[in-house]
């Protein structure tokens, strides 16, 4: 409920503070006194767009603040949690507007954006103005009305969970089928590429090793000649180095006992001689393994040419990169084989889920249909009470593909004159008719839909007498379990207030300001009497007003 509304520097309101009761709050006042201004200020904290032209004093900012008691509404807790906002015993919503038109919004002193403000305010306040009938023509609202009457709450939660699971798997199935179509589109090319690499049969580092072998073979004669020459110089020439070292060793050995450094040098020469002899043997062996082989050279060139061609085709530089591509292609071809299995399995799952969704939808639909006839009758009775005896409401009920709220297309059709011609309510009913129709519907479902604070702005326009009295009775019944705030010109409605607020204008120097005050019982009687008979109420009007106020 809205506990308090503070308004500062808005239109012709300098400062205004209103403490509302939890029951039926009635706001009255002369035309032009500022009732709509107060409602405009309330609209700002509900998320309406701001206008810097609304500021009284351009030197100060406009501040509108509403304090709400949220009660135990789960949706409010969920909103606060999902937006990282503190859960307090009261919710304070504040809107600030500067002279340059910039606006800021706060929930419990935490800055929020306009969509967040609008989302929370829709959970706290149900504002219904004359000609504001979009909700009544909204299919979701119409379905929610039948669900509230049918008590479908738990069943809907179960259905929506099943529907969400079905939709998730359905989307996954569509993605798999798109993936399969793409795979099929590319599979021939992938198969060709894979076959080409598979037939080549390259091994790890093969092309690099082939290139080295080919260079060796192409230079085999020069290498063999160099090896032979080196061996010859070491072992078989006119003066082989190995023999020369042997001769030097023999000469030095004759004098090894005469100098202390000679034995070490002799040992080093002996080691060098042995190393050179070993090198000569390896040179001879290496030479014996190298042969010029033109056929092998041709084979290796062909192999290398194939490898370089495939490297260029795939934009890589090594054998191992080619093998990586080959493996990736093989995996893609395997995916083509497995994806159909996944599709078949998921199709079976989604089919089972769809059957479960359809079964739940049928159960929900049956419960809704059961409420249609009683609902139509009750609305007809209430419409008669509020001065529309010839008006009828008819619920159109058709099957549609499953959606988040079931598989029913619900439409409220209206006939104002028992003509037998029913059309969608928002296309044929007048503003006043729609307002009273909405009041009747909300009064039937208020308990079960957990409606928030209900605010009615002059929805009683165009009615009087018994119709106005019945509107007052319905509103009073609504106010028994929730807060109702109503701006009215009808004494029959005003007389039923739990708290009556009077809006007035007063001069403040050269300016006019709007004020508001809560009336006591005697003031209420006078205010209602004036609404009955004019500025100077008669004794009969006062007596009538007293009866209205006291009996309420």
UniProtKB/TrEMBL annotation:
Gene3D superfamilies: P-loop containing nucleotide triphosphate hydrolases. Transmembrane segments: none annotated. GO terms for cellular component: bacterial nucleoid. InterPro entries: DNA_recomb/repair_RecN, P-loop_NTPase, RecF/RecN/SMC_N. The keyword tRNA-binding does not apply. It comes from the Bacteria. GO terms for molecular function: ATP binding. GO terms for biological process: DNA recombination; DNA repair; SOS response. Residues 1-508 form the RecF/RecN/SMC N-terminal domain. Keywords: ATP-binding, DNA damage, DNA repair, Nucleotide-binding. Belongs to the RecN family. May be involved in recombinational repair of damaged DNA. This is DNA repair protein RecN.
């Amino acid at each position: 409920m809205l506990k308090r509304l503070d308004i500062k520097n808005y239109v012709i309101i300098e400062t205004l503070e209103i403490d509302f009761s939890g029951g039926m709050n009635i706001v009255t006042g002369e035309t032009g006194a500022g009732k709509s201004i107060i409602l405009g200020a309330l609209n700002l904290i509900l998320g309406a767009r701001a206008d810097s032209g609304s500021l009284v004093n351009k030197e100060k900012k406009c501040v509108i603040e509403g304090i709400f008691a949220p009660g135990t509404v789960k949706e409010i807790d969920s909103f606060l949690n999902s937006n990282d906002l503190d859960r307090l015993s009261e919710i304070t919503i504040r809107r600030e507007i500067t002279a340059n038109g910039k606006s800021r919004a706060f929930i419990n002193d935490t800055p929020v954006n306009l969509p967040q403000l609008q989302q929370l305010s829709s959970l706290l306040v149900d504002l219904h103005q004359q000609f504001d009938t979009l909700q009544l023509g909204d299919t979701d609202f119409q379905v929610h009305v039948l669900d509230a009457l049918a008590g479908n709450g738990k069943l809907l939660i179960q259905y929506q969970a099943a529907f969400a699971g079905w939709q998730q798997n359905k989307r996954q199935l569509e993605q798999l089928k798109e993936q399969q179509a793409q795979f099929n589109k590319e599979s021939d090319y992938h198969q060709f590429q894979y076959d080409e690499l598979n037939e080549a049969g390259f091994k790890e580092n093969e092309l690099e090793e082939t290139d080295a072998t080919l260079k060796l073979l192409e230079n085999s004669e020069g290498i063999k000649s160099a090896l032979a020459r080196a061996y010859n110089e070491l072992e078989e020439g006119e003066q082989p180095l190995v023999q020369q070292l042997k001769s030097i060793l023999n000469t030095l050995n004759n004098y090894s006992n005469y100098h202390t450094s000679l034995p070490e040098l002799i040992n080093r020469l002996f080691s060098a001689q042995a190393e050179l002899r070993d090198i000569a043997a390896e040179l001879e062996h290496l030479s014996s393994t190298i042969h010029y082989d033109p056929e092998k050279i041709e084979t290796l060139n062909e192999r290398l040419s194939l490898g370089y061609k495939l490297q260029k085709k795939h934009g890589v530089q090594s054998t191992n990169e080619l093998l990586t591509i080959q493996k990736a292609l093989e995996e893609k071809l395997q995916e083509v084989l497995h994806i159909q299995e996944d599709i078949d399995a998921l199709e079976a799952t989604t089919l089972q889920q769809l059957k479960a969704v359809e079964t739940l939808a049928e159960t929900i639909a049956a419960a809704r249909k059961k409420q249609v006839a009683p609902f139509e009758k009750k609305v007809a009775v209430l419409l008669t009470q509020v001065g529309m005896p010839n008006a009828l409401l008819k619920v159109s009920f058709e099957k549609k593909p499953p959606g988040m709220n079931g598989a029913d297309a619900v439409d409220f059709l209206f006939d104002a004159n028992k003509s037998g011609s029913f059309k969608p309510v928002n296309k044929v009913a007048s503003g006043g008719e729609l307002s009273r129709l909405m009041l009747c519907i909300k009064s039937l479902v208020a308990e079960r839909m957990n409606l928030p604070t209900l605010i009615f702005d002059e929805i009683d326009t165009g009615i009087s007498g018994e119709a106005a009295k019945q509107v007052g009775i319905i509103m009073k019944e609504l106010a028994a379990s929730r807060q109702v705030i109503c701006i009215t010109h009808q004494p029959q409605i005003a007389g039923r207030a739990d708290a009556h607020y009077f809006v007035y204008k007063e001069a403040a120097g050269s300016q006019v300001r709007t004020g508001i005050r809560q009336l006591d019982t005697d003031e209420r009687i006078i205010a209602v009497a004036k609404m009955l008979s004019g500025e100077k109420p008669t004794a009969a009007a006062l007596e009538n007003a007293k009866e209205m106020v006291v009996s309420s």
